[in-house]
Every structure is written in C-alpha cells, then in structure tokens.
Amino acid sequence: MQATGDSGLDIPWAEADAIIFVVDAQDDYFDALSKLNQVILQGYRSNPDIHFHVFINKVDGLSDDYKYDTQRDIEQRVHEELIDSSHEFQDPASTEPFRLEAEVKLRFHLTSVFESSIFVAFSRIQQRLMQEERKTAAAAEEPESGQDDQDKPSEKRISLHDAVEQACNLLCSSCSLEKAYIFDVPSRTFVGCDTSPFDLPLFDVMFQYTKFLTEFSDLYMAVTADTSKSTRTWSASVVRLGSDTSVAFWQLNKYDFNIARFRTTIDQLERLAAP
C-alpha cells in the first residue's frame, strides 16, 4: 500500500501505533531532518494518533555538553519545520490557527547501542503505547446511548501501564524496596516501574543484572532436571552487591494472570470509590 505524501515510504499508516526515526548525531543531520519532517507530515495526515519517536543515536562518543546541545538543535529545527507546515492542516472554517507542533505526538531520545540508553528508549515507547491502550479500549467499548445515558458519569478505566505502576508501588512499599522494575528479560526492556524518580546508575545495575541472568540461563539450559524432586515453574535470584545494596529477581507467571487479575481488581476498586 503506497501512502500519499512526499516521503516515499510504503507504510500502512492507519495500522501503525508508533514510528521510530533514527538520526546520526555524529553526522550531518540536515537532510535527515528534512526527511523526518516529510515522514511526520505524511503520517499525521493519514493517522493523527501515531506516536513519533526520534532516536538521536551514537551519542556515546560525545561529551555531555555537546550531545545535549545537539539534542536542543535537532528539537528546535524539527519544531520550526512543523510550525512552517501548520498551514497545510488549517481548517478554512476555523478562525483559530492550527498548531501542528502542539498536535503531533513527538518525543526525542538520546541513544547508543553500546549502553543502556537504547533499551530505555524502547522501554519508554512500550509504556507510552500501554498508556494509549486505555483510551483505545475505552473508545471501543463506549456504546451508543441516549440523553439519559449521556447524563451519567463515565466509568473510570485503568490502563495496563497504570496497573503495572501501582503494582510496583505496592511492592516497594510493602517490601521496603528502593526501586522495582518489571522487565521483559529477553529484550532487556522494562514494561513498567514504580513512580519514584528514574535513577540511571541504578537502572544500569538492573540492566547488567538481567544480562547476567540471560547468560547464565543459557549456560544451564541443557542441564537435565531431576524429575524425582519437585521443581518450580518460575525463577528467582538474589545477589548482594554491597553492604547496603542487594538486587533480587523474581519471574512472573508467563501467562501474566497475576497482572491481569491485579489490573481488574484496581479497576473495580476505582469504580466502587467513584462518587
């Protein structure tokens, strides 16, 4: 399916939830930003709900000052391009100017394949889409109703992202943990965490720990289990890194029944608490 527009990309925009555009921070990126603008215009015209994520890549070889200056320069140039293109989406019947730069769902990420930043960026994209799942599901379940139903307050619906976040908050509170993440171990991305501030050094410890677990699980995968003894269907590991630092890992049920049940319970409690 050839989408209309100038980017020349063969993308079914209506089926896309997110677009990732990679910019080389160590190269001349002016042509890339021009291409990015075409992609945004074409994608937004076909599907205004698409999330655009720009990976400013190869920042591992840059100083902190230089990479943040590069990010600001790229963001400003993209922002100005969107302002200049706003007139293409202006409704002739509206007296209010259309602000494309405010309507497009656009985020920038500093990334490198040689460190955890690329995995953090993919994790943020996953969580963003999990938040949007709430709106999509609510819209799909909204029935056609008359005036009487319109007067009733709408029911609250908790997203999968919010359910996971609250589960992590409860875990930290009940177990006195500093931070809790729910990782997809094979991809080393996290689908959720508690609401305490993100700490990159602490995340790097967790990130390296998941890598360690993956390597050792492969090492022992061929070992034949003793069937005469009861075996667990889940994995667990605890490592003490220092006098005041420990890292613990518990595997969730692969069918994520507990998360689904927790989400349903939170949803019901919110409805009961609603005035």
UniProtKB/TrEMBL annotation:
Transmembrane segments: none annotated. InterPro entries: Gtr1_RagA (IPR006762), P-loop_NTPase (IPR027417). The keyword Nucleotide-binding applies. It holds the Pfam family Gtr1_RagA. The keyword GTP-binding applies. GO terms for molecular function: GTP binding; GTPase activity. One of its GO terms (cellular component) is nucleus. GTPase involved in activation of the TORC1 signaling pathway, which promotes growth and represses autophagy in nutrient-rich conditions. This is GTP-binding protein. The lineage of its organism: Eukaryota, Fungi, Dikarya, Basidiomycota, Ustilaginomycotina. The gene is GTR2.
